[in-house]
Write a sequence for this structure.
């Protein structure tokens, strides 16, 4: 396994703005002798070719690229070259884009408004296997999560929420009906409403949702 302490880290820069690429080359090269800029690309196709030829340790990449786009390219690279780590550097602070990038395999997400010091910190963190998010990005993720929790609470009635917790706790329909002092048919109606509102089709999915939203303790 390579160590950034003993070997220079091969970095590929992918952005469609030549001026930004030049700034990144200067920033990364000037701040650390451990970084070696091995190439740069302005579109997804050239970026893919560069990755296959150079197999960089780390790719600093924008989401908005001519061609298939940074998100799709991230998935392709991570599938074919899992050793290459990807740091997204973009102007987008939309929660959905952030989550999509992380799910695609990006190991970091930094906004283009960041300082050179933060960029260096992000590169170094991602290089050693950590996940790095700009403070502003972390704020967006927390805010979106809190909003989803609030919407979830408002979406479900108190009885539906109680039923969800009991389903996730492993109780059968008859056991839930006994606990709530209602008929099994009423419990089945609550379960159907839960699946419809949450767009979840299985009991296992409801359980995972309850655990993820911390409605029950593991």
């Amino acid at each position: 396994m390579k160590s950034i302490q003993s070997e220079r880290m091969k970095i590929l820069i992918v952005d469609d703005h030549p001026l930004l690429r030049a700034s990144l080359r200067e920033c990364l090269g000037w701040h650390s002798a451990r970084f070696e800029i091995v190439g740069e690309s302005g579109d997804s196709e050239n970026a893919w070719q560069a990755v296959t030829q150079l197999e960089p340790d780390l790719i600093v990449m924008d989401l908005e690229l001519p061609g298939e786009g940074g998100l799709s390219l991230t998935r392709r690279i991570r599938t074919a070259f899992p050793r290459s780590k990807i740091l997204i550097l973009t102007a987008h602070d939309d929660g959905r884009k952030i989550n999509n990038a992380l799910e695609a395999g990006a190991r970091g997400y930094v906004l283009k408004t960041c300082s050179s010091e933060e960029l260096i910190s992000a590169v170094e963190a991602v290089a050693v296997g950590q996940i790095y998010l700009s403070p502003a990005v972390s704020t967006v993720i927390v805010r979106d999560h809190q909003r989803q929790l609030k919407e979830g609470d408002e979406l479900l009635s108190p009885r539906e929420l109680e039923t969800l917790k009991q389903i996730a706790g492993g109780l059968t329909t008859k056991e839930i009906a006994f606990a709530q002092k209602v008929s099994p048919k009423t419990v089945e109606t609550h379960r159907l409403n839960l699946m419809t509102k949450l767009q979840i089709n299985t009991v296992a999915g409801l359980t995972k949702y309850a655990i993820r939203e911390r409605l029950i303790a593991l």
